[in-house]
Amino acid sequence: MSMTTLTISSKNYSSWSLRGWLLCKMVGLVFDEERVPSDDPAAKAELLLLSPSFLVPRLVHEGVTVWDTLAIAAYLHELFPEAGLLPPDRAVRAHCLSISGEMHSGFANMRSALPMNIKGQYPGFKVWAGAQADIDRIVAIWRGCFAAHGGPYLMGPTFTLADAMFAPVCSRFTTYSVPLDMACDAYRARIISHPLMQEWISGAYDEPEELEELDVEF
Question: Whole-angstrom Cα distance, residue 25 to residue 21?
């Protein structure tokens, strides 16, 4: 039994669980997954964007409990600086933290209009204006990163905290067939095909539960 546990909720619906899980996997942490049932009131409230939950993601490591994705990232970077969650260059690291923080606190319209649903497929989905403004900002962030750091990931050649923070966005863009320019669509596809994302997606498809509130109807 591992001394380390990561508490998550639905792999199909929980974007924050995905981010925390990716961070732990990226540093090579060995951990047990603990699942909060999707019908848990606090977990369900977060999935429905009604209120934040301190249940997920929550890391317990060697007696230390850490929740909130950015707190988990800071904790893991302190323990495993060689894993590269944050870039070594100060300026690039500042850029990484800035866009990660923006993802953490922003884009409420997109989150509401395009809820995380890995198993969902909605070609031709109509995006309303408020959500489109968020999508346009995300595209601008990605383009700025590619111009500044050369790709193929946001901060350059390696997968960092920034990519973990935007990974659920790539999932949303896939689910709702969001039109993207060639460079951004290639990035979306690269993240979706990453081995860690494929592992998570496989787990999402194995989940039997469904939340009708997050299944979009045309």
Answer: 6
